[in-house]
Amino acid sequence: MDRSKFQHLPRATSRPVKCPYEGTTLLHISQFNKGSGFPIEERTTFNLHGLLPPNIQTLDEQVQRAYQQYSSRTDDLAKNTFMASMKAQNAVLYYKLLQTHLKEMFSVIYTPTEGDAIQNYSRLFRKPEGCFLDINNQDRIEESLSNFGNADDIDYIVVSDGEEILGIGDQGVGAILISVAKLVITTLCAGIHPSRQLPVVLDCGTDNENLLTDGLYLGLRQHRVRGQEYDDFVEKFVNAARQRFPRAYIHFEDFGLHNARRLLDKYQSQIPCFNDDIQGTGCVTLAAMLAALHVNQVKLEDVRVVIFGSGTAGTGIADQIADTIATETQKSKTDSSKQIWCLDKIGLLVKSLAKQLTSAQAPFAREDQEWRKEERKDLLSVIHHVEPHVLIGTSTKPGAFTEEIVREMAKHVERPIIFPLSNPTRLHEAQPQDLYDWTEGRALVATGSPFAPVEYCGRSYDIAECNNSTCFPGVGLGAVLSQSRLVSKEMLVAAVKALKARSPALNDSSRPLLPDVEDVREISVDIAAAVIQCAVQEGLAQEKGIPIDDGELKEWIRAQMWEATYRPLVRAEHMHSARW
Q1: Residue 338 bears catalytic tag
Q2: How far apart are CA 532 and CA 481, in angstroms?
Q3: Among 21, 110, 121, 461, which one carries the catalytic annotation?
Q4: What is the pLDDT of residues 122-138, one digit of tens each?
Q5: At 157, which helix (H) or strand (E)?
Q6: Is residue 110 annotated as a catalytic residue, yes or no?
Q7: Residues in a beta bridge with 456
Q8: Where is a divalent metal cation bound in this sequence (predicted)?
Q9: Structural domain boundaries of the chain?
Q10: 113-255 belongs to which CATH class?
Q11: Taking phi first (over 0 means left), then psi (-120 to 50 degrees means alpha), and beta for anything else, what does residue 488 get?
Q12: Model's pTM, two decimal places?
């Protein structure tokens, strides 16, 4: 289909780019700089002669050189720093290099290496990126946001307060890098325009004593502010962001356990927002689970799920499973929740523990009379009692899925579905090889980090990774393009079903339960289309002229996805917008 029919759209990527800069100024602006790639006519138009070597190179040639430079770095943190520097110099080259070597570089620009970069943020700091808001200057929020454009300039905001970052805890102002990294992924995986994004950190202080005593620390040197002042700060940010950028989608990232669910519950009925730690993790895990249920032919209304670890991720997964059971089987949310057993540090969640449970845990608390006290503390006893089809780990307790536990589970179900999801790899509840060995090759496995293929009885099995990046970018793309007023539960279920449909295991049970991240851009098109169609059906979509035909809708989506290519530059007198 000819995408040129959509070139009139504001985000269409087939038109030349208007540029108001020239000379050395142009070369220092990442979104316009082409380095040695400027053609002769642009060197003339923008007064670049004498500022660049004479040989004009293609983008592919630049990628080749950049990759050699990247490969010469001695460790992953140095490679991460190199990539950050490249991003600040030439955005197109940065994204093209990443796309060309996505599998290799993903763990460097995101988890786990981005965690190291965040921990060292104040020591590696060179150039600020994003919006820094602090709780002691709440009257400056609107002024600060105004530095990033006008009403139509921002599509996607990622905001973090840095309390629980990537399994490394409270990182204070360094959280700006997780906001930056998430937005890089939305561009890589779903074509969200990099100049139409805004990373934000809400600096409320930090309880990390190492940061508070570090003479180079760049954030507020005070313990975290909590309570009403914190809530007022978040609300002022949300209101100011919605007023300044009324079309923007807000993505909450790495908030603390006691704030993440509470803030999502507050704002999801008011604005288009999303929490990846809760909803993204829930969606991608559910997609893997649905694919596994297809393989072992267990119906959704019959599935029994045990979740070991009931923090933000665990309860997010539980909530997404319950929502999907309710949506797909017409059961009530209460009845759907009864198919899920959640454990945490206090053991099985039961109603008598009400005062110790978070608002996210409470819906999954079981009746006390169902259990003897000695059975509640022990995962093995719960497995024996429940006989689950699915065991999910989000506990950060390494080795928690012991051989005895796994073999007990495998006694009762033909194809045990086991997902050790805790990150990083050293915190996984079990190793995939052990799961295959302990179940005689019957286990259906997905993990939270990448693992090498395992061998069993002379056959190699690829291990699916529950990588949120296969899901949340597509959800965001669909919400942005449809201009949905909210992100509904039904929209998330639609996203899950679109991701599940891409599972290689649907056609071959020995294949992974989830698709590879290398295929993620087309996966994001499928997810965005499903989300948009659901938003239209629910009356939430505000964008006009959304195509009805599925094929045309996907071309409409692709036409608005940014690509890492050098588009022609044309002179502009003024910069009216951040679009490119």
Answers
A1: no
A2: 8
A3: 110
A4: 999 999 999 999 999 99
A5: strand 156-160
A6: yes
A7: 459
A8: 253-254, 277
A9: 7-105, 113-255, 279-466, 472-559
A10: alpha beta
A11: beta
A12: 0.93
